[in-house]
Amino acid sequence: MAAGWNGDHVSRGIRQGGKISQEAFMENYDPSVLPNETYLLYEIKWSSSKRSWQNCCHNTLSEHAEIYFLEDVFKKQRSDPSDHCSITWYMSWSPCGDCCRAIRGFLMEQPNMNLVIYLARIYLHKEENNRQGLRSLMNIGVSIRIMDLPVYSYCWKTFVDDEDKYKDDYWPRHFAPWIMLYSLELQSILQNIPSCLEISPGENQTPIFSLCVEDKEQKRALTSANP
Q1: What is the DSSP secondary-structure string of 183-208?
Q2: pTM higher than 0.85 for the full model?
Q3: Rounded-to-integer distance, Cα 101 and Cα 135, Å
Q4: 85-91 and 207-211 strand pairing
Q5: What 3-state class would DSSP assign to 56?
Q6: β-sheet with 113-119: strand ranges across
Q7: Residue 63 appears among annotated catalytic residues
Q8: Positive or negative, the Cα torsion across 99, 101, 104, 109?
Q9: Measuring CA to CA, which of 38, 134, 139, 204 is 20 to 30 A from 108?
Q10: Residue 18: its pLDDT value, please?
């Protein structure tokens, strides 16, 4: 089943017109929890147009959100291969290693495209396949960052359905510790040094996050990180 517009999207918080419900956004982009689904909010800006195109999607049982974007959304939107395109993704989970390879292959065939990826959290951050996948994207020029507070606020204003919003501004200061931890872990991944983030199960399935710094390489990476 492709992740096109269907009842499944309605039931999981994506409204007609491409907005996400407040509930779906808050449940899936809170970095202190570990939801099962991946949501992808995206912006596409063509050099020939003054306006950007914004929408969202999520994974299905048979297709990851990133693959749906590459194989369905982008192909339908692109009309002139020579037109330069800037794409920004705001993802609730980072791409897995397999998706990173697909993204890399896609971008290698699209010389007029650049991609920026913002992440709420890192998927299976200790698995080398996933770590290597993120490094491979960085090595071809993809910008990969952890969502910070201004980015959360921007996504709230841009992608959340107005009818659902209980307020116009969204500034979740309580996310700051998890933003810092994931930012430090992303630095360790991109600099190819051992993981510094530990996530263990707590009471009532609430995850417990902790920082583990054991060697000089990790300390240098953490010092250079800018959460």
Answers
A1: HHHHHHHHTT----EEEEE-GGG-EE
A2: yes
A3: 11
A4: unpaired
A5: strand
A6: 52-58, 39-46, 85-91, 113-119, 143-146
A7: no
A8: negative
A9: 38
A10: 77
